Amino acid sequence: MQEQLLRAIGECGAVAIIRRVPPPAAERIAAALRAGGLPLVEITMDSEDAPGVIARLIRDSESGSFIGAGTVLDAAAAREAIAAGAHFLVAPNLDHGVIETGLRYGRVVIPGVLTPTEIVTALQAGAQIVKVFPAGSLGPEYIRQVRAPLPQAKIMATGGVSADNAGDFIRAGAFAVGLGGKLVDARAAAEGRYEAITAAAAAVLAAVRSARPASG
């Protein structure tokens, strides 16, 4: 599962973050994202009934879809997310308990980091991907510079990433990007305009694809 998920993140290049929306809307949003070609969805643990939403999305997900838990701040939250079936764990911080718990149960763990020291510490602890946050405040050039001495780091740039700048982060060397409010439009969801979220997902994926070198 870990290798399959890592391959999916690398190929897709984007993870959608659904935060603090009512459970029925979260499930509709996830479906809208999948319709736009984005099969990687993170439900933050500070959302209403996050474990229940994760479990239902996994139960109803299509082949090739992966549902993770976000804002996993400590080992207790990691265990709760894993019990719900979360395929991967994402955090805004670097907590060794989260990494250890996730690895113990065969999950991909993506801790939040900022500095080169934190990146190396996370990798040494076993993290497969690191989440540079808030990437929007740092800009793509930060990703480029930090990867010069750390080319082995798979970086997911998160925070302030949109369809407009996602390609810039990928060109700078990001393994993937994480997008929340700039992808999952809360107003569109509240108004039932899920087609807008589908279109936004497709736009992000197009930006990621266009930023990558042509194969062959």
Report on the structure:
The protein has 216 residues and is an alpha/beta fold. It has one domain (2-211): Aldolase class I (TIM Barrel), CATH 3.20.20.70. Helices cover 48% and strands 16% of the residues. It has 11 helices and 9 strands. The protein has a 7-stranded parallel beta sheet with strand order 3-2-1-9-8-7-6. Strand 2, helix 3 (50-60) and strand 3 form a beta-alpha-beta unit. The relative contact order is 0.16. The mean pLDDT is 95.
The SSE string, one letter per element, is HEHEHEHEHEEHEHHEHEHH
CATH-assigned homologous superfamily: Aldolase class I
* Strand order in space, largest sheet: 3-2-1-9-8-7-6
CATH architecture: Alpha-Beta Barrel
**The number of domains:** 1
N-end to C-end Cα span: 28 Å
State mean pLDDT (0 to 100 scale).
Answer: 95
How many distinct helices?
11
CATH topology category name: TIM Barrel
Helix content: 40-55%
Class in CATH?
Alpha Beta
Structural class, by secondary structure, is alpha/beta
Strand content: 15-25%
Index terms:
216 residues, alpha/beta, TIM Barrel, seven-stranded parallel sheet, two-stranded parallel sheet, 11 helices, 16% strand, globular
Short description:
By secondary structure, the chain is an alpha/beta fold. It has one domain: TIM Barrel (Alpha-Beta Barrel), CATH 3.20.20.70. It is built from 11 helices and 9 strands.
Question: Secondary-structure blueprint of this entry?
Answer:
Elements: H1 2-12, E1 14-18, H2 23-35, E2 40-44, H3 50-60, E3 66-70, H4 75-83, E4 88-90, H5 96-104, E5 108-110, E6 112-113, H6 116-125, E7 130-132, H7 135-138, H8 140-147, E8 155-158, H9 166-171, E9 176-179, H10 186-190, H11 194-211
Parallel strand pairs: 1-2, 1-9, 2-3, 4-5, 6-7, 7-8, 8-9
Helix pairs in contact: 2-3, 2-11, 4-5
